[in-house]
């Protein structure tokens, strides 16, 4: 494997939900819809902190 994960911090779904002030189910929906990248570890997901920061910087709009 050529990539290094030394600088990557992974968050749990609960941590992401708390940061975004949404429910855990909303985070799961975003992961399953491909809106938020995640890695599966066994039965749980881990989300790169950088992906959450990028999503929050870009803003989320659900119009209609």
Automatic annotation (TrEMBL):
Pfam families: HTH_17. SUPFAM superfamilies: Putative DNA-binding domain. It comes from the Bacteria. Residues 10-58 form the Helix-turn-helix domain. One of its GO terms (molecular function) is DNA binding. InterPro entries: DNA-bd_dom_put_sf (IPR009061), HTH_17 (IPR041657), SinI_DNA-bd (IPR010093). NCBIfam families: excise. This is Excisionase. It comes from Curtobacterium oceanosedimentum.
